[in-house]
Amino acid sequence: MTTALRPPPSLLIEPIVRMALLEDLGRAGDITSDLILPLGQLSIARIAARKGGVVAGLPVATLAFHLVDSSLSVRPEALDGDRVCPGATLLALEGPSRGLLTAERVALNFLGHLSGVATATRALVDAVTGTKARIVCTRKTTPGLRILEKYAVRCGGGFNHRFGLDDAVLIKDNHIAAAGSLKTALERAFAGIGHMVRIEVEVDTLDQLEEALSLGVDTILLDNMSPETLHDAVRIADGRATLEASGNVTLATVRAIAESGVDYISSGAITHSAPNFDLGLDF
Fold first, then answer.
1. Is 140 an annotated catalytic residue?
2. Beta bridge partners of 223
3. Which of 46, 139, 172, 183 is the catalytic position?
4. Catalytic residue among 30, 80, 82, 202
């Protein structure tokens, strides 16, 4: 077992879960369960893992059941962030049969997707063990699910990049092209930014890296560079800037990227392409 991570506040996640339930319930609710099952029928069930991986989203699944029927008993048998084996019980459920079946798919959708994100993240984290590199996520998230997916990344041992456009300045190639030059873009950013906000610049070449360093940038994103070029970038920076590597990050490449000496490795795939974690609800 692992120490439980603090999930996003219910105030933030309830609208997301409620919207998913409303989508599923449609105009008339769960007509299958309502027609087949007596109103007072009670059942015992469990949600179990069908393969090994890292769990994330137990409080989200719990909320789905409680929004459908507050009388349902939902007891976690694991913690978010735990590694589990096939067959492990994640949630023990008891209460009205109708409520269990009505909430089932939404609860499983959230739990399967978020555990998939956590499992994919943990695979990269494990692959860079022994290096100083931290695995971070990006803004390449499912619309409406960013807060949950970024939480799942933390459950997998990763760290969060910026949550949105408003919490850090990241000057990318198109910003530079539109501004006319990196120098102009930086001058404008430094002139208007608050003292609590960081500025990061994306570079594609070592020449751009050297320009960014000469202009006083202390956080630099090295985009789509080979491990050999990343080694050169780390040598050139010589500790003057925090370096983040991005692009072509896979299980096959991440170790070599980390061994270049970069501080962070960002991956969009851990959120936008994580396989769903296989689990099921059984009565």
1. yes
2. 246
3. 172
4. 202
Which of 105, 162, 183, 255 is the catalytic position? Answer: 105
Is the CB of residue 224 less than 8 Å from the CB of residue 257?
A: no
Distance, CA of 53 to CA of 80 (rounded, Å):
11
Question: Given 82, 149, 223, 263, which residue is catalytic?
Answer: 223
Backbone angle region of 247, left / alpha / beta, with phi > 0 → left and psi within -120 to 50 → alpha: left
pLDDT of residue 5: 84
Please pick, among 51, 83, 140, 255, the residue that the annotation labels catalytic: 140
Q: What domains sit in the chain, N to C, each tagged with a CATH number? A: 10-123+275-282 (3.90.1170.20), 126-272 (3.20.20.70)
d(CA 224, CA 248): 6
Annotated catalytic residue 202: yes
Decide if 132 is catalytic: no
Going residue by residue through the chain, which has 283 residues, state the pLDDT in tens, using 9 for 90 and above.
455 688 999 999 999 999 999 999 999 999 999 999 999 999 999 999 999 999 999 999 999 999 999 999 999 999 999 999 999 999 999 999 999 999 999 999 999 999 999 999 999 999 999 999 999 999 999 999 999 999 999 999 999 999 999 999 999 999 999 999 999 999 999 999 999 999 999 999 999 999 999 999 999 999 999 999 999 999 999 999 999 999 989 999 999 999 999 999 999 999 999 999 999 999 9
**pLDDT tens per residue across span 140-171:** 999 999 999 999 999 999 999 999 999 999 99
For the beta carbon of residue 99, count every other beta carbon within 10 angstroms: 23
